[in-house]
Amino acid sequence: MSELSTEELIAQKQSWLNQDVSNLKVDIVFSDMDETFLHTDKSLDAKNMAMLDRLAELDIPFVPCSGRAFNVLPKEVVNHPASKYVVSCDGAVIRDLSTQTVLHESTVTKEQALELYQKLKDLPVTFDIFADGGVYLERSRHNLISQLGIPADHAAFMQRSRTPFDQSVEEFIDSVTTIERLGSYWSVSEGEKYQALVADAVASVKGLSGTASMSMGMEILVEGTSKGAALQWLCNHLGISTDNAAAFGDSLNDVAMLSAAGMGTAVANARREDFEAAAYITLTNDEAGFSRFLTWALGE
Predict the structure, then answer these.
(1) pTM exceeds 0.70 for this model
(2) 147: phi > 0 → left, psi -120 to 50 → alpha, else beta; which?
(3) Rounded to a whole number, what is the largest CA-CA distance in the chain?
(4) Pairing of strands 179-185, 208-211
(5) Cys bridge to 284: 121, 197, 246, 269, which one at CB 3.0-4.6 A?
(6) Measured between alpha carbons, how far is residue 118 from residues 92, 112, 127, 205 in Å?
(7) What region, left, alpha or beta, does residue 21 occupy, with left being phi > 0 and alpha being psi -120 to 50 degrees?
(8) 68-111, pLDDT tens digit by residue?
(9) Could you give the count of Cα atoms lying within 13 Å of 213 in the half-sphere of its Cβ?
(10) How many separate helices (H) and strands (E) can be counted in the chain?
């Protein structure tokens, strides 16, 4: 049998839109933020926020599950009564919001970070340090963001969310407590060249691996770290079957999570890899696909 085209795959996994009854049991909900729960311009969707209200009423825990650092997640989402836990930095850190404690972490060592920096320091790429809940970048590379040709909405978000520092990278790394992950962005116009160079550098550091949410950047983690692994860990910790977990995503760094969840759901603006990993495909992030699927799944 020949492989389905992307259009055929979407049609197949959106067939639920024509069904009145879901017969699904949703015990916990995970969702990526950018390009999934949020609009493309990073704004909140009123229907998705209303669905969080409904999850809170039903006492179904909601888990923002993002590549972002904890401190730069949307406050309206993190502070919502439905949000019980947070998975940040692509699964590197799992927090219990009720106690503000870290339940589980899978973090980069300072030695690994320094080794990778030595390999990337002479390239015109960013070296983002996700540490202690925030994101930090040496000032010269912070100024580089506006020159990379990254889409304006995301470039503005990067500039807002990354705190520049003036000390050396070596001094800064020595000053932090925990490095949750690293990141690197490069010029859109020379994407293939720098993607290969960064990927080679990451592969050469024992114990590190890379994933991505955008084609012009890499999210760098300790091997074995993923949103999918975090979903499985938290469900096990809470005694919830992953079969009863709904998860939403759009990018390569969401594939493991969509595969791990019984109700893995890709938004219609996702990548082909997400469509293949997901059990369902919903509407796009700009059409409140998150809310639309859960309205059906919950029998609302």
Answers:
(1) yes
(2) alpha
(3) 59
(4) unpaired
(5) 269
(6) 23, 10, 11, 11
(7) beta
(8) 999 999 999 999 999 999 999 999 999 999 999 999 999 999 99
(9) 22
(10) 12, 14
